[in-house]
Every structure is written in structure tokens, then in C-alpha cells.
Amino acid sequence: xxxxxxxxxxxxxxxxxxxxxxxxxxxxxxxxxxxxxxxxxxxxxxxxxxxxxxxxxxxxxxxxxxxxxxxxxxxxxxxxxxxxxxxxxxxxxxxxxxxxxxxxxxxxxxxxxxx
Amino acid sequence: xxxxxxxxxxxxxxxxxxxxxxxxxxxxxxxxxxxxxxxxxxxxxxxxxxxxxxxxxxxxxxxxxxxxxxxxxxxxxxxxxxxxxxxxxxxxxxxxxxxxxxxxxxxxxxxxxxxxxxxxxxxxxxxxxxxxxxxxxx
Lengths: 115, 138
Prior knowledge:
Radius of gyration of chain B: 14 Å
Low-confidence stretches of chain A: none
Largest sheet of chain A: 5 strands, mixed
Structural class of chain B: alpha+beta
Shape of chain B: globular
Order of helices and strands of chain A: HEEHEHEHEH
Mean pLDDT of chain A: 95
Helix content of chain A: 25-40%
Oligomer: heterodimer
Mean pLDDT of chain B: 94
Strand order of the largest sheet of chain B: 1-2-3-5-4
Helix content of chain B: 25-40%
Number of strands of chain A: 5
Strand content of chain A: 15-25%
Distance between the termini of chain A: 19 Å
Largest interface: A-B, 20 and 25 residues
Radius of gyration of chain A: 12 Å
Order of helices and strands of chain B: EHHEEHHHEE
Structural class of chain A: alpha/beta
């Protein structure tokens, strides 16, 4: 699924990486536990989270996650947004809560395994 | 290509923790190591770096590139892990509220390091804990 489509589904604002929305992702992970993200998430995924500290960006960079979507209208510090631009990670923010944002993406086919 | 780097990890410095792992990832990428191997090295290094900052009195992390593997050694100054078998179990943690609010301390660190490394050794005593991890590059 293209990031531009994800943006539309979640009615999200793009905070970093506006030029990269043509990028495709196949998986998504909704999680506030960075340890679990490091343990279970595969590369080239989207991370949806309500945590906005610098470790979210560090986790995304380390785990090769392409895009972070902050839920519940949470906006990170400008420093995180600037750092994300520098390392090429796309940042979006949506007013939707985590459960609903994940549900919308799943219902639209993102990350479905067919099982 | 010879590559050796050493990083200091301060006790309780959650702002800087993770920077060494970022640098390791970027440097291994410049050297041309396979992306999937770099990801495993970086995840294990990051978990180790966080563990030292969270649980120990501080320590250091060394990374060396050998002809056939990347070696990461993480060494802290104590106080040691009282029960290693428990610490290696997923979900077991002694981390406090502040650490959990950052998204860590879920008891996944050591098991995740072991899972990502091809070789994993841990030794712990009151004077410190040493973890050696090897990642095959061929």
C-alpha cells in the first residue's frame, strides 16, 4: 500500500518526508512498547504509536521502519521531526486513536496474511 | 576492511542511549555489510545499550569487524544480574516506571539480543556483566 493512500485513510498530516509518499509498504505495527517493535516488527513497515519520545525514532531507524504515524493527535518535538527528515523516515500524525487507525489500515488490506 | 569502535554508555543517560547503535548501523552500511545482518547487529546493540543505561552503573560497547563476522561486546561495571535464567526469559523485567514509559523495560532485551545474534555469551557477577555477540557476515 502506498503511503499516500495510508495518509488519506487516516486523514493524517505529513510532518516529515512529504516527497516520499509514493513509497510502498506491506506491513504495519501498532505498539507503544519499543521492545516489542524491536522484537517482532519486520523491516519496511509502518509503525503506529502514541509514544512521541526520541526512542521511537531511534527504534524505527534501527529496525528499518519506513514510516511512523503518531496517533491521538500526538505531535512530537520539532527536533524529532528534523532528525526524521535527516535519516529519511516519514512522519505522519492522525487524530484517530491507535485501535481505530490500525483497524482502518487492516480493513483496507495492509498487513493481511490471508489466514 | 578493519573496523573497530568503542562507545561509553553512561548510567541513566536515556537521551544518549541508542546513539552508539545508530552510529554502528551507519558505519556498517558504509562498509557494505548486508542490510539484513546490519539490522540484526543494530537491534542487538540497541537493546544492549539500553540495558546498560537502565540497569547498570555504566559501561562500554565495542564493535569489531572480523573477516567472517561482526563481534559486539558489551561490558558494564555492575551490579550484575542475580538470576541469569530468569533474565533470559521473555517478559521478565526489573525496570521501573520511567523506563517503561519510554517504551522499554518489557523484559524483551536479553532474549531479543540472543535471537538476533548467531553467537551469544553472557557472564555476570557483582563486578559486572559481559555480553559477547557474533554475527556471521558470509
